[in-house]
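[Q] Does anyone have a clean structure-token version of this?
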Amino acid sequence: MSHITPLSAQPELSDDKRTIGRVLVVDDSRLQRRILSASLKKWGFTVMEAESGHQALEICRDMPPDLVLSDWMMPGMSGLEFCDAFRQMTRENYGYFILLTSKSDKAEIAHGLDAGADDFLTKPVDPGELRARIAAGARILQMERELTEKNRLVNSTLNQLRALYASLDADLMEAKKLQQSLVSDRHRDFGRAEVSMLLRSSGHVGGDLVGMFQISETRIGLYGLDVSGHGVSSALMTARLAGYLSGAAPEQNVALYRCDDGSYAMRPPAETIAALNDLFLSELDTEHYFTLLLADVDLASGRVVMAQAGHPYPAVQRANGRVEMLGAGGLPVGLIPGAEYQEFEVMLRPGDRLMIHSDGVTECAGKDGRLLDDEGLADLLSELRATPALACLEALVWKLAEFAGTDTFADDVSAILLEIKPSVPSD
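[A] Here you go.
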């Protein structure tokens, strides 16, 4: 004869009580309920009793139990039907369900598992086995509750992150407006010539900037720059550089110097870029660098003097449609102390135009992965030969989107278009 330890001799399940507070015993036999309840109470659990499945469901609605011990065979509603109804109830936490049965057929056991039972105990119930099954259930409930708490924390964190991202998005939208405001004049007519500018960031903000400053009635300075990287830090750097090449505050513009008569004149572009390189390396503690093309334009004669610091080669489109790429490269600004830069010039005649653009144009990748490059830009300019001023730059963006297969570009796109107006034939 096997030895069964009396219920009164079982130790308290203090660890399980931390997870399982309320236990519901469901059995149509009052004696069986009392036997199970006496043991469970001694182990420290709060015990509720029900004599039928219907009564058990009412109790579950009012005081959801952590663990259910239910007889399989009961009149009215079987333990299996009660288990199925129990699983359909809305609960905050998972409830562990143990069926008490004399059945041992595997098909019946599988049927019970399908109905939602977690475990089985064969009647008559062995107290040692009951204790072990409750301990197993407690471990599962503990894991479930830990997972629920972790999910709650994850959801709470996600909600906080969503709120943070919404705030950042709003801030970045404002930053985008501010950065776009750095290009105040998108189009300006100087009589003999017109200047149009384009600035389109790949994200909310970017590292490209184009600008213009007037030196005299017939002289203007043009520049296009591209700070390394993307995002907020690059955008902040463009704002700083815009101050160094300001048209609104000529006394702060490093490209200008004050003459004895109080007027301003432009330093040679190569000298200005060298000064910016020294200034950048000495005053700004940053890992960034930038490319730059600076042009001194004489509107009266059409003479343009430029210096290039790693920026793409500017394109000159002659009145007959032929496109030339100018320049010799040069080192980016902010890499090497004492870097020197070379100047080059071009004469623009009536009907000619000059485009200063960032590498977001020439390095735009097509649907096949091939870059547009200088040759591709020349082809686009030829197609847009009859499209003037700002409309040409807008059409250029459309052409780039068509080439890339998307209007979401991987890099910032910026450009300046200087057009010398065609001569008006005399009568």
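[Q] Thanks! Anything notable?
[A] Confidence is low (pLDDT under 50) at residues 1-13.
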